[in-house]
Automatic annotation (TrEMBL), chains A, B:
GO terms for biological process: intracellular phosphate ion homeostasis; negative regulation of phosphate metabolic process; phosphate ion transport. The lineage of its organism: Bacteria, Pseudomonadati, Pseudomonadota, Alphaproteobacteria, Hyphomicrobiales. The keyword Magnesium does not apply. It comes from the Bacteria. It comes from Devosia litorisediminis. This is Phosphate-specific transport system accessory protein PhoU. InterPro entries: PhoU (IPR028366), PhoU-like_sf (IPR038078), PhoU_dom (IPR026022).
């Protein structure tokens, strides 16, 4: 047996790793909120802030990587702990990409400034943002509390995200067909919708990893994947 | 010192890990080629094959993860070997996402079938595919041969990918403005262009990791990132 203070310090490190992921998750949620707000209000200052904040999210991913590698190297964890540390690396990687999506939302706001925008264009984007924010929050909750049931719910709700995306895609196409002046702004909004849909996918990834950590089983079978492939827009 | 046969077997495992990544890289390159071919020729059978093949790419990612975790658990590698094993996990994750992009290209071909398509719409997509395929190939070469100079070249060429994407984006918008019947097919092609641009980003990620493994330094400084952020479409 290792002396008590070493075990305690190892636990401290595991807790610190979990806290750093939670902190990164918090920053990513703020980035989604700010990225969308910059888009909906054409707020150039908030857009710039969101783009710069993404650098901090990238730095946090690197920090989590380094913490994980250092823990593995020094502590030589057992298989189950090792699996959870590797999962932390994967979750941080998903969060980093969600941060990228938020940055892209902010960037789009700089592009659509001055274009022919109508408030109705935005409704779908606003609703989708609320839904994917919930997905990210609940996937991180499922991950931090090892809640397999919560993870399943996040995965099931991904169909809702996809349905909302498909409906928004069609809606934006109709605006484009109505008036050629709508083509450029609505094209940018289509990409925003796609970024939000991808954020939903990352939430599902995190939930699937949470489920696997808790149960040792893969949540999505090959059959489900094929079905999802065929349904998705 | 560990007995000779154990050292040799550890090397065998490192080689096997590298080979598995090379194999996954090969499958991903085929997926990009087939996904684009399915798109350009509206080949439904090839599209279905590409979608199904993505499942194998996902399985390979899981296999690489398991190999890496098992090696770390049993061999307790030193810091430098550990860093290279963790990098293998990241590279596999990038390749898995490139596989997803290829699947999305294949899916789009099923969606644009029967729409008002003109051969000129396709030129840009064809050229971009050639460029990003080269980027993926050369990033994997730089990774497998630890070639820092090659990695820098891949990263520098990402600006070319981005420029090609921006130009294609504008070109497709003009077709959409010319004739409303072009809106739906060209919107799908816009997303294809975006998928290709993202494949280019993943090639850059792989090259950056190759560079870091070889030199211990980050290739992209914060300043470069900010510049890229502002230039990109």
């Amino acid at each position: 047996m290792a002396p008590e203070h070493i075990v305690s310090s190892y636990n401290d490190e595991l807790v610190a790793l979990a806290q750093t992921i939670a902190e990164m998750g918090g920053q990513v949620e703020v980035a989604i909120e700010n990225g969308t707000k910059a888009l909906l209000k054409l707020d150039r200052e908030l857009a710039d802030l969101t783009i710069i904040a993404d650098q901090r999210i990238d730095d946090m991913q690197r920090k989590i990587d380094d913490m994980a590698v250092s823990m593995i190297a020094r502590r030589q964890p057992m298989a189950s702990d090792l699996r959870s540390i590797i999962t932390a690396i994967h979750v941080a990687s998903d969060l980093e990409r969600v941060g990228d999506m938020a940055k892209q939302l902010a960037r789009r706001s700089l592009k659509i400034e001055g274009l022919n925008l109508q408030p109705t264009f935005y409704n779908g984007v606003r609703n989708m943002t609320a839904l994917v924010l919930r997905q990210i929050k609940e996937s991180l909750d499922a991950y931090s509390s090892r809640d397999a049931e919560g993870a399943i719910q996040v995965c099931n709700r991904d169909d809702e995200v996809d349905a909302m995306y498909t409906s928004l895609f069609r809606e934006l196409l109709t605006y484009m067909m109505e008036d050629p002046r709508n083509i450029t702004p609505c094209t940018h909004l289509l990409f925003c919708a796609k970024s939000l849909e991808r954020i939903g996918d990352h939430a599902t990834n995190i939930a699937e990893r949470a489920y696997y950590l808790q149960t040792g089983k893969q949540l999505s079978s090959d059959v489900e994947e094929l079905q999802r492939t065929q349904i998705k827009a």
